Amino acid sequence: MCTALEVTTDAGWSWVPGTGPAVPPGSLDHLRFANQDDGYAYGPQELEATLDGGAQWFRSTYPGEADGAVLLDLEASGDWLVALVSAREGGSLQVSRSPVGRPVWTPIPGATLSGASQGAPDLSVVGGWGFLLSGPSVVGGELSGAWTPHATGCPANLQASERLAADTAESPGWFLLGCSGPEEGASAPKVTMFSTDGGATYQPTGYTSLATPPSTGQLDAMATSDSGAAYMVTTAADTSVYLLDGAEWEALVGSLGPGQQVKDFGFTNVAQGLLVLDSPTSGARAQGELYLTRDAGATWEEVDFSITAPPGQCLVANLSMAAGVQGAALGNTIAQIILQTRGAPCSMEGYPVVTLSGADGYAATTAQPSPSSYIFQARPEIPVVISEGTPASFYLSDTDAPQGDASSCPEFTSLTVSVPGGTMSSSIDLSMCTLPPLVSIVVEGVHGLSAG
Question: Taking the complete model, does pTM exceed 0.85, yes or no?
Answer without folding.
Answer: no
